[in-house]
UniProtKB/TrEMBL annotation:
Keyword Signal part of the UniProt annotation: yes
Protein name: VCBS repeat-containing protein
Renumbered residue ranges of the record's region Disordered: 1-24
Pfam families: FG-GAP_3
Keyword entries, A-Z: Signal
Annotated Polar residues bias: 1-19
Gene3D superfamilies: 2.30.30.100
InterPro entries: FG-GAP, Integrin_alpha_N
Source organism phylogeny: Eukaryota, Metazoa, Spiralia, Gnathifera, Rotifera
Amino acid sequence: QSSTIFTGQTTYSTGSNPESLKAVDVNGDGKPDIIVANYGSNNVGVLLNIGNGMFAAQTTYLTGAGPVEVAAADVNGDGKPDIIVANSV
């Protein structure tokens, strides 16, 4: 039997009213980054994984009104994930 030990909580700032998040390697370094839909800020935040369980402060990208869902897929066929956003309005 194994025991699991959790370390203390680390919090990261996002935009207003975060609705959805996904963990995906957006910069190709092999580490999962975080994409978050910030409904109240009308943007998407990307927090890059800097290793050791830590993430850089979010970089934001404007979206249409009220983003509620995010996804990532290689839409244009270049081998890199593209960020897809669904807005409520």
